[in-house]
Write a structure and sequence with these properties.
Layout (H helix, E strand, L loop, with lengths): L10 E4 L7 E8 L3 E8 L4 E6 L5 E7 L1 E6 L2 E6 L3 E4 L4 E5 L6 E8 L2
Antiparallel strand pairs: 1-2, 2-3, 3-10, 4-9, 5-8, 5-10, 6-7, 6-9
């Protein structure tokens, strides 16, 4: 199956999970997983949240930022992958001067 993000309508989520600014994403949801290519502009973030029923994988395509994972900050940049297992909490923060573009997979709960 090919998922072509260029053929999708962009979704804009303002203050996602209580974060700053907006998350802009192209999302495929097949009822089992949400698969997305997304962007956080400088100063934007996804707020802190816990994955109660499933996990999340975030692979950074471009830019850099940080993840708040279980109370600790971890740097992320292009080529790094962040994994948040079921039962853990995280937030993604673009604290840089460039866009943070990432690919994410989240099982649908």
């Amino acid at each position: 199956m090919i998922i072509n993000f260029r053929d999708m309508e962009e979704t804009v989520l303002t203050e996602f999970y209580g974060g700053n600014k907006e998350l802009r994403a192209y999302m495929h949801n097949d009822g089992l997983n949400k698969i997305m290519r997304a962007k956080l502009v400088p100063g934007a973030s996804i707020g802190l949240h816990t994955h109660e029923a499933g996990s999340e994988i975030i692979y950074v395509l471009e830019g850099k930022g940080k993840v708040l994972y279980d109370g600790n900050y971890e740097d992320v940049k292009a080529g790094t992958c962040h994994y948040c297992p079921k039962g853990h909490s995280h937030s993604l923060i673009n604290d840089s001067e460039e866009d943070l573009i990432f690919f994410a997979v989240v099982p649908v709960q």
